[in-house]
Amino acid sequence: MSNGAAVSQRYFRLSALNALVGLLLCGAGAAFVGGTASDLQANRLGAAAQEILNVQAEALNGALDKYRMLPVVLGHRPDAASLYAPGADAAATHRIALQAAALSGALDVVFLRPSGAVLARASGAAKDVIAPSSPLLRAALQGRLGRDERVLDDGRRAYVFTSAMWDNKTIIGVVAVYVDLVTIEDNWSLINNPILASDAAGLVVISNRAAWRMAPRPDFRDTVQGGAANPLQDAPTRYLARSRYLAPLNWTLTVLLQAAPIRWAAVMWGGLAAALALALTLAVQLLINRHFAGVRRSRAQRANALRLERIVRDRTRELLDSNASLAHEVGERKAAVDLLRKTQTELIQTGKMAALGQMSTALSHEINQPLSAVKTYAQNALTYLQRGRQQEAVDNITRISELTDRMAAISRHLRNFARKPNPTFGSTAIGKVIEDALEVVSARLREQAVSVTTDLGEPGLQVRGGPVRLQQVVVNLVLNALDAMAGQPAPSITISVARAGASVEVSVRDTGPGIVVSDLGQIFDPFFTTKEVGQGLGLGLSISYNIVKDFGGTLSAHNWPGGGACFVVRLDLGEHEQVAAQ
Ligand code: ADP
Asked: How far apart are CA 83 and CA 109, in angstroms?
């Protein structure tokens, strides 16, 4: 495929060729068509001139022929000898001449002696004298018809025919008939085109243009003056001349037609041909332009399509790549989620096992101790009964009864713990919740010899929340405090309840090492623990936090300025407390 520069080069080459051909066509067309048109026009004008020429030649010949036979007829008059006889009647001769002139319309009829002397003439107007050496006289005396044009004394032009006067076979004189050329010119005045007759010497004998009469014939190859019908409008003009030789007269008849139409035809048709060639060149240029515009457009479209194809290909590749990496990522995520689920399941399982272990430890501790005491009291009561010491026996049995009550209480607490919490909750006496919680953990408290100080505030103070889950929260907080103070001398826990506006604040404070400051932000997160494996699950605070949140309260932690950690449970006042507070 050719590139853009090659296309442009081809375009310019074709355009230049078209312009060159157009130019040649313009020139050649103008020359050929103009030439042909001028030739045609010249031929047409020539034919018209020829026609005029033929008609006028015939008319001229006809007009003169009328007079041609008159001198011959007069020359053969039977009374010719008597006319030329010495002492003849001059008046009679004059009458004959006058009669002949009047009948024929000739300008003059003259009888001459062989010497040229006038015997008689019809008209006295033209006193023309024919010299003895004149060809007119000589031709007549030789028995031929003499003919010539003559300019008379008064300036009139005449055509003269002469013939011999015969007496038997002898020439006794000459008769001359004068024809007025002005009458012929009068006929020509009706013809628009200039017309002239010139004699052998090139003198214009007659013409319908006054300027040319009796003057040398102009050279019609050049522009000439005097051709205009109206002399006031005369200007140098170029003519197309057509001539014809009139044999008997020895004249040349010439008709002139204005040559301007020939030039105009050449200019007009040549110009038209040039314009046509120009239009053709322009049309071809338009076609070339359109063709190359199409070529360029299709090239641009092809380039565009290729570019789009490339973009689509690149995008598709990118998409495929990103799809592959996404699929890989999804796979990884799926694996991670699976691993997380597995780990969670394992953790829950571990948690369950740990809780079960803790519970069994607590249970066996709580139950075994009273059980061994019951066994001891029962043996003692038996011994006292055998010895008849009834009162001591009763005391021991009373103890046994108290111990079984205690075991029943523990079992009741455990049952409470295990029971599913009631989703609807109302108001709970916070003091009772705290007392019950302390009872649940009383064994651990005693074991670690922890001194517990409680300030339960207003008696019967109600908070919003369920008793079982609130107790679970307090137990969690106390157990954490116990864990933190393990192995510490004089451990103590202070639980206080205080009313703060429409809320109640329960704080559980210990004298342990406090919470590591950097851990403060994460202790409520599930599974966050600083305890050794098997000791803690990191769920206690997270569960407690969510329970308090469920009740519309908050759980927060901070370190006590004097040492130890302090957890604050903030709950809404219970319903009838709120009414009382109003
Ligand atoms: P666990 O007791 O199983 O570790 P918890 O959610 O109950 O889980 O406690 C999370 C962590 O909070 C504990 O591991 C401990 O580091 C810290 N903590 C909780 N209570 C106390 C406290 N009274 N004194 C110091 N640190 C505490």
From this structure: 14
**How far, in Å, from the CA of 544 to the mean position of ligand 1?**
12
| CATH number belonging to the domain at 422-581, selected among 3.40.50.2300, 3.30.565.10, 3.40.50.1820, 3.30.450.20 | 3.30.565.10
Options 3.40.50.150, 3.10.580.10, 3.30.450.20, 1.20.120.230; CATH for 184-258 is 3.30.450.20
Fold type of domain 69-180: Beta-Lactamase (3.30.450)
Give residue ranges with CB within 6 A of ligand 1. Answer: 480-481, 484, 510, 512, 514-515, 523, 528-531, 536-538, 540-542, 565
Which residue lies with its CA nearest to atom 23 of ligand 1? 481
If pLDDT is split at 50, 70 and 90, which confidence band does 183 have? confident
> Confidence class of residue 234 from pLDDT cuts 50, 70 and 90?
confident
CA distances from 120 to 92, 133, 156, 158, 176 (A): 9, 20, 20, 18, 11
pTM of the model: 0.47
Alpha carbon of 530 to ligand 1 centroid (Å): 7
Which pLDDT tens digit goes with each residue over 303-350? 999 999 999 999 999 999 999 999 999 999 999 888 988 887 777 667
Q: How does strand 503-510 pair with strand 462-464? A: unpaired
Distance of CA 293 to the CA centre of its chain: 14
**How many angstroms is it from 1 CA to the middle of ligand 1?**
81
